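_Full entry_
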Amino acid sequence: MTNIATLLTGSASAHGDRIAIRHEATALTYAQLDELTARTAALLQERGVRPGDRVAVIAPNVPHFPIAYYGILRAGAVVVPMNPLLKAPEIAFILRDAGARTVLTSPMSAAETAEAAAATETDCLVLDPDGFDALLDRIEPVDAVFDAQDTDLAVILYTSGTTGTPKGAELTHRNLLSTRVRSRRSCTGTRRSARPPSSAYRTRGWGRRSQRWWSSSPKGGPRPRRSATT
């Protein structure tokens, strides 16, 4: 199984009592984080999200972001993260372009997201400490992690759109796992392979010097996604 969410389940199994997240007065262990993502996956499935569906997340660096992120992956869906400072028209564009079925938003972005969700007929959930957490409390967590293939999409990252409309780069589970391996090597000083890096991808219409995506695997890196408007 290559689902990136197994990194979290593995950590929860190995040392569940260790702290995974600290934010202000909140501290979550790996076991607690794992359970919350399992409940999030169950909630998404209850609302009709199926493997391969796109689910957007609009939130700053708060505990609800990794809860949503890994919950989406656990359900086999594709994460579409967005800048929480985007306005309704920008959110609506990405929701349409990605074909998002559901969007999870923080309270700070709730008004703009609700407007965009209504315009695109996208299911919308607000990640507030009361309503969303109450939904998680009443639902049974899913035990299994979706058995994703290494070439299955995991995340679609959108550009800021400063030189045109935002473009999405598609990252597979293998891309993300390979990035993790490289990061660990760089942090631990492990010797890198002598094999030269794979070729870069550049999406048509992107800036000349920016938006270059290096491959994370021998078979290629992020797949460039063409906008629905091009």
Remarks:
- Residues 193-220 have pLDDT under 50 and may be disordered.
- Residues 59 and 65 are 6 Å apart (CA to CA).
- The chain is about 35% helix and 20% strand.
- Residues 1-188+221-225 form a domain with the Rossmann fold fold (CATH 3.40.50.12780).
